[in-house]
Amino acid sequence: MLLKKKLIAGVLALGISLSGATSAFAYDGWADTKQTAYQLQAPILGNSTVLNTPYDVDWYSWTNNTGVRKGIAARLQSPTGLMYDFLLVKGTDYNSALQEELGGWVQLTYHYVEPGETVYFAIRGRTFNHYSTTANYNFSIWTV
């Protein structure tokens, strides 16, 4: 009985310590290339994480598995006082969205994505001063 109580206490302690762990998305080395992009399931309204070094770039992808042509739109909200830009890559087409103000947001109007096609999004700081280890950006995509 004592062993059972210790086992239960250990599992609870592990659960509590894991619930306070940092986000898996909050570090350099996660989804840093197009080949290691984080696969999204649209719509994603408000994926929030950090760019924690001047060299950190976060890549996301979305594959149209709906069986029909879809339009996709994306929006990026930078942390206050910072400018983050993003790039949409579809095949060989590159569309960039540049922010106009610190802590602002930028939105790409929708692009058509054919069934089975994948689009990629890269988020990066505007300059080497535009990153934060604590302030999250907010990234959303949706289909139309």
Describe this structure in words.
With 144 residues, the protein is mainly beta. The protein has a single domain, classed as Sandwich (Jelly Rolls), CATH 2.60.120. The chain is 12% helix and 41% strand. It contains one helix and nine strands; from the N terminus they run αβββββββββ. Strands 1-3-8-5-6 form a five-stranded mixed sheet, with no helix packed on it. The protein has a four-stranded antiparallel sheet with strand order 2-9-4-7, with no helix packed on it. The termini are far apart.
Helices and strands in order, then pairings?
Blueprint: H1 2-19, E1 38-39, E2 44-49, E3 57-63, E4 70-77, E5 84-90, E6 93-97, E7 105-113, E8 118-125, E9 137-143
Parallel strand pairs: 1-3
Antiparallel strand pairs: 2-9, 3-8, 4-7, 4-9, 5-6, 5-8
Notable characteristics:
five-stranded mixed sheet, disordered N terminus, 9 strands, 41% strand, four-stranded antiparallel sheet, mainly beta, Jelly Rolls, 144 residues
* Structural class by SSE content: mainly beta
Order of helices and strands: HEEEEEEEEE
Helical amount among residues, as a percent range? 10-25%
CATH architecture label name: Sandwich
The number of distinct β-strands equals 9
- How far apart lie the N and C ends? 58 Å
Kindly report the CATH topology.
Answer: Jelly Rolls
Report low-confidence residues grouped into runs of 5 or more.
Answer: 1-26
Strand order of the largest sheet: 1-3-8-5-6
Number of domains: 1
